[in-house]
Write a structure and sequence with these properties.
With about 260 residues, the protein is an alpha+beta fold. It is built from eight helices and nine strands. A hairpin with a 6-residue loop joins strand 2 and strand 3. The relative contact order is 0.13.
């Protein structure tokens, strides 16, 4: 689960609905919308998407995506989503969670596990933490990447998977870095499907939303066809090129004929 921004046409209604981002000169040339997507790491399929204003809180845009989580899923997210209320909302879905947390979050060590991770509790306030009331049991995984030159001094993950025998810390730390697959999904949307257009075309907020969801559905269609092709050929889906498949579809779509939007008389 992650978010991104994209530019929309500089029209008064779009400015009012989405807003301008700030810049060194005051404001940028185009208003921007903020989106959040829930995507499957392995296939890059977008399972759910939301659209909001640029200045809207990232969690407010992303929170509706929780409706698509199910108990057989492991949801990964970055530091922007960690907080007591956010974690509680994620728990209610029944899905397992693996979210990175900010360094400022205080999590006392309650029990150290064999793999170096530890059990702790997430509290809604400092007062509750002091009294040890209303806490949510969590597992904390801390690790470093010493051989990566531009890595941070410490990474900390929060998870609902408390059993270190079933889900070892090293395995979860390795798995978490699969979350960066979402950046490829945004690249596929913005670069390869948008044909390098700087902004969307729609001049009203309603049409921006319509175009956005059409954009996401087109991405899903491409990824679904790639999944089908890889499955039939018995090859890993990640070996297929998204760009090449988009080009193949663009060449073949004109031969599919015209599909009328209305039923025949």
């Amino acid at each position: 689960m992650d978010g991104s921004n994209f530019e929309v046409p500089d029209e008064q209604e779009n400015v009012k609905a989405f807003g301008y981002p700030g810049s060194r000169t005051g404001q940028s040339g185009y208003p921007q919308a903020q989106c959040a997507i829930l995507t499957e790491c392995g296939s890059h399929a977008i399972l759910d998407a939301e659209l909001g204003a640029y200045k809207q809180a990232e969690w407010d845009v992303a929170a509706p995506l929780l409706r698509s989580l199910t108990p057989d899923m492991l949801c990964m997210a970055d530091r922007g989503f960690v907080g007591y209320a956010h974690w509680q909302a994620g728990l209610r879905t029944g899905a397992q969670l693996l979210w990175r947390m900010p360094k400022s979050l205080i999590l006392p060590v309650e029990k150290t596990l064999d793999d170096g991770s530890y059990l702790s509790s997430l509290y809604p306030s400092a007062g509750d933490r002091k009294k040890r009331i209303n806490g949510i049991a969590v597992r904390v995984i801390e690790y470093t990447l010493p051989q990566v030159s531009d890595s941070e001094p410490m990474y900390r993950l929060l998870t609902t998977l408390h059993n270190e025998k079933v889900a070892p810390a090293q395995a979860l730390a390795t798995l978490y870095h699969e979350r960066w697959e979402v950046e490829w999904v945004f690249d596929e949307l913005k670069t390869h499907l948008a044909q390098r257009r700087r902004v969307l075309r729609s001049k009203t907020p309603e049409l921006v939303r319509q175009e956005f969801y059409g954009w996401v559905m087109a991405h899903y269609a491409v990824r679904w066809l790639m999944y089908q092709g890889a499955t039939r050929a018995g090859i890993p889906g990640r070996t297929l090129s998204f760009t090449a498949n988009v080009q193949v579809l663009r060449r073949n779509l004109p031969h599919a004929g015209v599909i009328s939007p209305c039923a025949p008389k």
